[in-house]
Amino acid sequence: MRLFSALSALLLAAATSLAFDPSAYENTHIQRTYELGGAATNVQTVYTVRALKVGPGGYELVLDSPEEGVQGGTDYWEVVQGGKVWDSLTVQSRSDGKKTVTIPLEPAPTGGPLTFTLSQVLVHHSHPLPASIGQDDEQFLMFENNQTMVESLYSTRKETIKYRSPSKKIISHSPAPEKYITVGANPSKKSGGTLTLGPYTSVPPTVALSRGGVLTRAPGVEVEPIRIHYPYEEPVKTIEKLVRLAEVSHWGDNLNVEDHIRLVNTGAHLKGQFSRIQYQMARFRPTFPAQIIRNIIYPLPAHSHSPYYYDIIGNISTSNFRPSHPTRGGPALLELRPRYPILGGWMDEFTVGWDMRLGDWLRSVKGHAAQKVLRVPFMTALPGVVVDEAELVITLPEGARDVNVTVPFPVDTIEHSTHKTYLDSIGRPRITIKKRRCVEKHEQDVYFQKVFTAGVATAVMFAAFALAKRLDVRISKAPQVAVVVG
Amino acid sequence: MSVAYPIPHVSKQTVKNTSALLKFTILAVISAAAIASRLFAVIRHESIIHEFRATKVLAKDGFYEFWNWFDPTAWYPLGRVVGGTVYPGLMVTSGIIYNVLHWLNFPVDIRNVCVMLAPAFSGLTAIATYLFTCEMADESTGLLAAAFMGIVPGYISRSVAGSYDNEAIAIFLLMYTFYLWIRAVKEGSAFWGMLAAVFYGWMVAAWGGYVFITNMIPLHAFVLVLMGRFSHKIYISYSSWYVIGTLASMQVPFVGFLPVRTSEHMAALGVFGLLQLVAFVETVRKLVPGKQFQLLLRAFVIAAFAIALAVLVALTSSGFIAPWTGRFYSLWDTGYAKIHIPIIASVSEHQPTAWPSFFFDLEMLIFLFPAGVYLCFKELRDEHVFIIIYAVLSSYFAGVMVRLMLVITPVVCVTAAMAFSKLLTTYMDPTVPEIDDDAAPVTGDLAAEVEATANKVKGKKTASADKKVGVVASLKRGIYSLDTRFIVITPLVGALVMFVYHCTWVTSNAYSSPSVVLASRGADGSQHIIDDFREAYYWLRQNTKQDAVVMSWWDYGYQIAGMADRPTLVDNNTWNNTHIATVGKAMSSNEAVAYPILRKHDVDYILVIFGGLLGYSGDDINKFLWMVRISQGVWPEEIQESNYFTNRGEYKVDAQASQTMKDSLMYKMSYYRFAELFGGGQAMDRVRNQVIPNTPIQLDTIEEAFTSENWIVRIYQVKKEDDLGRDLPAVSAFEAGQRLKKSKSAKTTNKKR
Fold first, then answer.
1. Which residues contact B359 (CB under 8 A, 6 or more apart)?
2. Which fold has domain A237-463?
3. What are the alphabetically sorted keywords of the record (chain B) (predicted)?
4. Is residue B26 part of a domain?
5. What's phi and psi for A365, nearest 5 deg?
6. pLDDT digits (tens, 9 = 90+) for A417-440
7. What is the pTM assigned to this prediction?
8. How does pLDDT run across A142-173, given as a tens digit for each residue?
């Protein structure tokens, strides 16, 4: 299964990572596309590469600039070649800061070109400019990136970079690098909402890998930053903190999931004060101020039921729930409306919870009835929303032991603890998984394997029955004597 | 002996057992019903409580932290010593429950403990009422009284789930203390007296209304002495109650030395002294016969009593013993509060009770109440004297203040149950009186019952019975036929059913809506929740500085502290009248006067409640006159109530409103940009049904910061002083593009704070 494939990939990666050779490959064409957004920017890079040697080994892919701090992007990345998929779990990194990975490409024996696609997500690379706007004003974001050119350890023949604005419009941008442009050609073309840089030709490797596995800037290569100013007609949503509590109940055949969310509108701050009348009047205008978070559609897994939505001062009555189809399934939709419209810079903290049938999420290991595998989604994907800090806390039933956790991506910490609640004697095992900077791609399932001993419960049940059997609930043992009342 | 209907033959033992089980079951069901009927609020809406921060501190940091807790966020900038200025009984009770549950591994949230405290204690009140009534009459009366007490709206109004108020536990303590006192008087036991004292101590810790007990019990003892019923039972029980109870009550820091220093407590002390004298005299009389000596002693008692009274008066006038406080004066003179302490009169529950509310809160019980009191007179044992005194006193108090309906409710339930039970037992008793002369003598108990109702029946029976005079004389009083029984019992049962319906209806419609959540019904009957209060409070909590000071009228102080978690100037603990008057002055003055007040108190936000858009009548404009009156009490030369009326003496907000009214901060904040909402049409205030003039309201020193969806809550931010040293009206004039009028703003001093 997944675990085995990961292991084999690791072995393969270890075998191929003996030494690095920058002349083993050449990039025939690199095409990178930035989908400019709010808090998250999707980056897709199509590499067409050619092996220059026989038996070139794995392709050393650079994920990040050497100058970029830890805050730069997410550690989410995914490479697709044909039907094969590699991600951070299956491929080992060669560099210290995990900025490069070795993709075990299998080049065609003829030396023909190979194409693969790298998907990445940058978070918080766009900031509002102007930083504060009036309630009815339009919102603009400034995308900033330290390095324009695609980082590569190999030389590149041709390279194009595209920036796509979500609003079919780009206000301005900093000048494009001109170093590798054909003389006389325009380094950048702007058409509608798309800005194209390049094509750049014969680009040497921009970075180098030292013997110690540290990624460094290649000598003679200058870093050229880029700034793009574009309108953004949606609120910039950031979840500063997400804590998902999941609790398993075997008796109730229930998996309860509860998300504690701190949501911030990280778009342009509100200049001055909020005016309700202006907000209410805006409804009659053709363009409603786009940077205000008015509602959030929260998709729940199929067959979720009994949802709730509250905050520290009580129930929030403004929400709608559309359950999934009873037979066809499909996601259930929870439409949340915060207590107040969340303007730029405002914050809201709330809790959303729901119940699910445990049977859909728990299964027994074949041949071991006591061994169970539980699957819990790490988070709920909200389009364009970045989660700065995510935490998944799972409480297993009392008596579960030997818990094994399998995560779908690298996480920061996994902690095991014991939690005591109603009528517990030895407490319930609890696992806390933490991860920073998550995007919607991180909506994946975490697997828990555990042994469940129903010993305690059975003992309690026996005791209850024994007690019930011995209890004499008759009112009186006195024989009936007829007495005339009077 | 003949019976009206056949009785099944069962053994006495079975009857005893069954009735014991039934009693237990019925009591359990009554308690359950009492709790269940109080859950309307939680089920309809949810568990909302405003103020339980003190309890949170107690649960989190322990008792001593709570005891010493100084709350710097309330009554800004004064702060408040919470541990020493509250009756801690409520918090301590819920803290104990919380800790016991946690010790048992029930990790209940302290909030849920607080929400469910009132219903749980009402269940206990029903049981206490049962015990109390059993001392007055028989057990079936007790059950009936418990049932009445469980569901009567007069009590439910103060004890629905989520009403985390002192009264929530106080009524239970009141009833239980009374029960223990009656027990003590009956048994003459120091043990029961001590128990009564312990519960009295708890009551003192829980509610300011403990003064009612402090005066009820001495009065009972005093009346018994006057009736010549002095006995050692009374002496023992009263002495043990008074000594231990007073010591217990003095342990509460808020009460402290009040029991020996204020007039409210002097009756208890006086009766204590009187009882010592009387007991002394009685003892001496037993030992020393002789008429003259007795006379002398009697004179001595009277003289001692008179001297004690004189000393008391002297101490009071010299100021050592505080005279009656204003709050108590307002009970004697209902007009007193309105003139001298408007802050008390401004609370709607301190108004005199309207007649319909007696029926609304007590339904048929109010009619049965006098009958029950009459029955007490007929028996007039010591405990019945207690009921009579209680009935008289509480009838007066309930008439004076709506809030004190709560005090009359238990005695109404008990006496009504006595009357009702009497009727039922009389008419359900199957025994038919014998007509012939040598009829079996009816037992005493039954005879008394029969007698009570005989008058009505008598005439009828004489007609149907033998015409001979001799027979009539020998005719026993009683109910003879089955139809008479039916005719009486059927409407009685009907009345009971109606009572239950009424109670449920009142509970669910009148007393179960939390004040922060409003609900309206759509045309299709669907419920629409209006949640403006929490919207605004939550906005304050999330999007303002943690230490931003919020000014509002005191009604919303606890709500802001609890839900928005921000410092407030004044809150529902109305301990400082001047501070409240300051807020009232800021609200009722014009901007120029109000701004320095706001700045001096570091006010960042002002919160007003405005119901004009939705027709929510409990808004600040309707409370405005009280703000004016309260601040007038402190600054009579600056604020005058008459200035806020029109020339014809009307309170108006439309074009005819007086200039003072229109200039007041409250008016401006309530109607700021209100007229624009109507887009040139008539801006109708739906509460006062008046048209608001659509001349724009100009705010210079404050700016609108947030308005809730239905405009119920409006929050304004106070502007800081201008950085250039101009005054704020000049700044806004400058920004509006007008020319400077005076050179006042050319001051060069930079007045930054």
1. B366
2. Immunoglobulin-like (2.60.40)
3. Transferase
4. no
5. -75, 135
6. 988 887 777 788 899 999 888 888
7. 0.85
8. 999 888 889 899 999 999 999 999 888 899 99
